[in-house]
Amino acid sequence: MNRFVLTSAFVLAASTAFAAEPSEKPVVWPQLPPKAAVSNVKLVEPHLHVNRAGKGAPRIALTFDACMGKTDPRILSTLVDQHIPATIFVTARWLRSNPEALAVFLAHPDIFELEDHGQNHIPAVDIPTTVYGIPAAGSPQAVAQEVKGGADAMMAAGIPQPHWFRGATAKYSLSAIAQIRGMGYRIAGYSVNGDSGSLLPAKMVEKQYASAKDGDVIISHINQPTHTAGEGVAASILALKAKGVQFVRLQDIPEQGDDDTTN
Question: How many CA atoms lie within 13 A of 119 on its CB side?
Fold first, then answer.
């Protein structure tokens, strides 16, 4: 009986003390406009063209994503040895692992234009979803961090302030496009998929490159040195040069992108 009374008294005292303490206030996040359900949100994969040359040699822009991992020396050496201009989109993750390749890029500012591919290679979609199995940023705040984090890492590495952004998977929600444009960036689509994420065999890559026409922007990857796609990219660059193609960087020539990505 005494044990019961003592226990009851302890519980009552503890409850009274707990009630007397102020409850912790919940974290209040900024109010954001409601987002549509994932199934109702349109994702776009914008196209990009540079101004056509018209008469004379066709004009083509080579763009390469450096997502993470290493650097493909077959592609890099071809660009440097042949003095082929190209625009390289780098992530903060790639920069941390490739100081030697970065030094090559920075040593050839007449060849390479370096632009923002994001902080962690996360799709620039401002709702929770996945793109090709990759979790998207999922909110406007996370989209902003992906863009700004990539740019901050670039400038910390000695790269000038970027003016273009290309998100992982090259797919976006329309609202994220408007947000990124509001941050001061053009968004780099493409018109020819050169290597399908560096997954194509070399011969298929060569066919993709051979299909490029005046004004096209080709996307490929420079971060997969063990894939056969890189062999095809290097061979294709040489083949296009032999045809007299005029290679340009995005910073060198006016361009036109759809889905309000550039204008």
Answer: 15
Collapsed DSSP state (helix, strand, coil) of residue 41: coil
Question: Could you tell me the pLDDT band of residue 40, with boundaries at 50, 70 and 90?
Answer: low
Q: How far apart are CA 182 and CA 189, in angstroms?
A: 17
194 vs 52, 149, 200, CA distance in Å?
Answer: 19, 27, 9
- Tell me how many degrees the CA angle 217-81-170 measures, rounded to the nearest 5: 25
Distance CA 171, CA 169 (A): 5
Give the separation between CA 255 and CA 176, rounded to whole angstroms. 21
pLDDT band at 8 (very low <50, low <70, confident <90, very high): very low
Q: Which two tokens stand for residue 236?
A: 């294709």
Handedness of CA 168, 171, 176, 182 (dihedral sign): positive
Torsion of CA 110, 111, 116, 118, to 10 degrees: -140
